């Protein structure tokens, strides 16, 4: 399972390019990533860049929402276990329900960890955001100079 931000980068630039970016991050070559993303996005229109920025912001919001909602999932997990203990169920039903609840919680825990501690994805997304802002500002300045 990939983080939401990693999926965004793979969607925009492809899996192979994502692997290249992570390799460059390991070698501390962030400017190479910046120039590569800049070269890929340089010819896009302002509308396309705005759409890319909107997609980026949506992915960041989803990532933050996963982190915020994890507390409620944990609380629900604890309450569910306490309810199962209080219901005095037969062992087969109790352990089946406990196993299912634990399986669901484990999935949410893994999702939380992948999205919370995806430092390389965050660094790539920050570079991507900087390129988008730079290109949008550049397009805005070019449009203003053309109007004058």
Q: Estimate the helix proportion, in percent.
A: over 70%
Structural class: mainly alpha
- List the total number of helices: 6
Low-confidence blocks of residues: none
* N-to-C CA distance: 51 Å
H/E order of the elements? Answer: HHHHHH
Number of strands: 0
Which assembly state applies to the chains in this document? single chain
Average residue pLDDT: 91
The 3D shape can be described as elongated
Work out the radius of gyration.
Answer: 22 Å
Beta percentage is: under 5%
Sheet with most strands: none
Q: Layout of SSEs?
A:
Elements: H1 4-13, H2 15-26, H3 30-41, H4 46-86, H5 91-116, H6 119-147
Task: Give descriptors for this structure.
148 residues, 6 helices
Give a brief description:
The protein is mainly α and 148 residues long.
Describe the structure.
With 148 residues, this protein is mainly α. It has helices spanning 4-13, 15-26, 30-41, 46-86, 91-116, 119-147. α1 (4-13) crosses α2 (15-26), α3 crosses α6 and α4 packs antiparallel against α5. The radius of gyration is 22 Å and the shape is elongated.
């Amino acid at each position: 399972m990939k983080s939401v931000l990693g999926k965004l980068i793979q969607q925009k630039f492809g899996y192979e390019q994502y692997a290249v970016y992570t390799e460059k991050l390991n070698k501390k070559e962030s400017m190479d990533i910046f120039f590569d993303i800049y070269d890929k996005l340089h010819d896009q229109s302002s509308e396309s860049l705005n759409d890319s920025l909107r997609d980026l912001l949506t992915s960041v919001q989803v990532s933050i929402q996963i982190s915020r909602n994890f507390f409620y999932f944990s609380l629900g997990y604890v309450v569910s276990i306490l309810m199962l203990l209080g219901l005095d169920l037969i062992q087969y039903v109790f352990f089946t329900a406990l196993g299912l609840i634990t399986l669901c919680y484990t999935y949410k825990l893994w999702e939380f960890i992948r999205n919370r501690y995806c430092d390389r994805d965050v660094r790539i997304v920050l570079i991507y955001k900087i390129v988008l802002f730079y290109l949008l500002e550049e397009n805005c300045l070019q449009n203003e100079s053309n109007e004058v």
